[in-house]
Amino acid sequence: MPKITYIEHSGTEHVIEVPVGSTVMEGATKHRVPGIDADCGGACACATCHVYVDEAWLAKTGTPGSMEESMLDFAEGVEPNSRLSCQIQITAELDGLVVRLPSSQH
Hints:
Layout: E1 3-7, E2 13-17, H1 24-30, E3 50-53, H2 58-61, H3 66-72, E4 82-84, E5 98-100
Parallel strand pairs: 1-5
Antiparallel strand pairs: 1-2, 3-4, 3-5
């Protein structure tokens, strides 16, 4: 299973094995990573799973769709590498992915 590193704003790291086919958000919520609330359950309707994708992984995680871009308008601290973790599907190629959580989600 691919390992994903979630880094809280405080610097605390959580390295979690996440099954292929699930999402970065599902891995976080299943393992209770603080800061990924996922209030909408992964329906791309709340922006409470906002993460910053490490620059080295941007090409592999793809680009946000129009619905995700619309929801990011409601997130605090949006940066060019912002994504909703519910929209990043885990593939074998994402083994080692690093995402950081915004300070507003703690």
